């Protein structure tokens, strides 16, 4: 059985790690390089780096910072933000990323998923889905959560799997930064419908929320940001707790 993964996320704006609530009210959280090294030492299984304003500002990901972060960790490293073509992906993978996270670009050009997975392998392609629930509808948002699309979350997740994405990073915008727990209902449904791994994102506030996502929603990984940035939870303590509750994690 594969180990369940704990993944810290570095949301980067203007070169600084930030954290907000529901994708707004961003506050500085520290240096990307220092936080990455800390998480590596605490036992993180992977690291995600998202240049959250790259698409909005119509620019590429901060390559130099990605390269510096990659030097201080020895775990799988996913990078996203401002990636629009095969050349961007190749450059990031050559710079130190192990995977790329694609969101706005694949909504506009879904075929980028299939061409990228053929070029670099599906294991290197993460489809990031920012989902907001309105009534009974789950809608996909792009451009750092600022633009609603016509896409429905569940059908879009099925589509990206068909096109060759290796895993899905599902962020609940409603839950983001609230510390009220992951969107268990949506995650449970997706994990039952899809065969590729699902990373839960948005809403972690305590150890029990991670346990709930693994046991009730059967996700493959849990991502969190502010909870780790501000030292409200230590990754090694979290993994010991999960292990004690019979979750297969790497200690």
Descriptors for this entry?
12 strands; 10 helices; 251 residues; globular; 36% helix; TIM Barrel; alpha/beta
Task: Give a summary of the structure in a few sentences.
The chain is α/β, with parallel strands linked by helices and 251 residues long.
Question: Would you give an account of this structure?
Answer:
- The chain has helices spanning 32-42, 63-71, 86-95, 104-108, 111-120, 153-163, 184-193, 207-216, 226-229, 235-244, and strands at 5-13, 16-21, 24-30, 47-51, 77-80, 99-102, 125-134, 137-142, 147-152, 167-172, 198-201, 221-224.
- The chain is α/β, with parallel strands linked by helices.
- The chain has a single domain (5-244), classed as Aldolase class I (TIM Barrel), CATH 3.20.20.
- An 8-stranded parallel barrel has the order 1-4-5-6-7-10-11-12, surrounded by 6 helices.
- A hairpin with a 4-residue loop joins strand 8 and strand 9.
Helix content: 25-40%
Text of the CATH class: Alpha Beta
CATH T-level fold name: TIM Barrel
- Provide the CATH architecture: Alpha-Beta Barrel
For the largest sheet, list the strands in their spatial order: 1-4-5-6-7-10-11-12
Largest sheet: 8 strands, parallel, barrel
Morphology: globular
- Chain-averaged pLDDT: 93
Q: How many helical stretches? A: 10
């Amino acid at each position: 059985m594969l180990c369940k993964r704990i993944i810290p996320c570095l949301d980067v704006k203007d070169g600084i790690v930030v954290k907000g609530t529901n994708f707004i009210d961003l506050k500085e959280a520290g240096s990307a390089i220092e936080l990455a090294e800390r998480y590596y030492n605490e036992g993180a299984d992977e690291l995600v780096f998202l240049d959250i304003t790259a698409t909005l500002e119509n620019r590429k990901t901060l390559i130099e910072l990605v390269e510096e972060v990659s030097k201080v960790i020895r775990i799988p490293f996913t990078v996203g933000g401002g990636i629009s073509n095969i050349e961007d992906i190749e450059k990031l993978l050559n710079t130190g990323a192990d995977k790329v996270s694609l969101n706005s670009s694949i909504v506009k050009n879904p075929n980028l998923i299939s061409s990228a997975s053929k070029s670099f392998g599906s294991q290197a392609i993460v489809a990031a889905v920012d989902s907001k629930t309105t009534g009974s509808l789950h809608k996909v948002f792009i451009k750092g959560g600022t633009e609603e699309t016509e896409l429905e979350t569940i059908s879009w997740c099925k589509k990206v799997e068909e096109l060759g994405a290796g895993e899905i990073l599902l962020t609940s915008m409603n839950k983001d930064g609230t510390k009220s727990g992951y969107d268990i209902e949506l995650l449970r449904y997706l994990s039952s419908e899809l065969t590729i791994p699902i990373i839960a994102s948005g809403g972690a506030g305590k150890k029990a929320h991670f346990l709930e996502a693994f046991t009730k929603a059967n996700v493959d990984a849990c991502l969190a940001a502010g909870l780790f940035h501000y030292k409200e939870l230590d990754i090694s303590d979290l993994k010991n707790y999960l292990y004690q509750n019979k979750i297969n994690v790497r200690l």
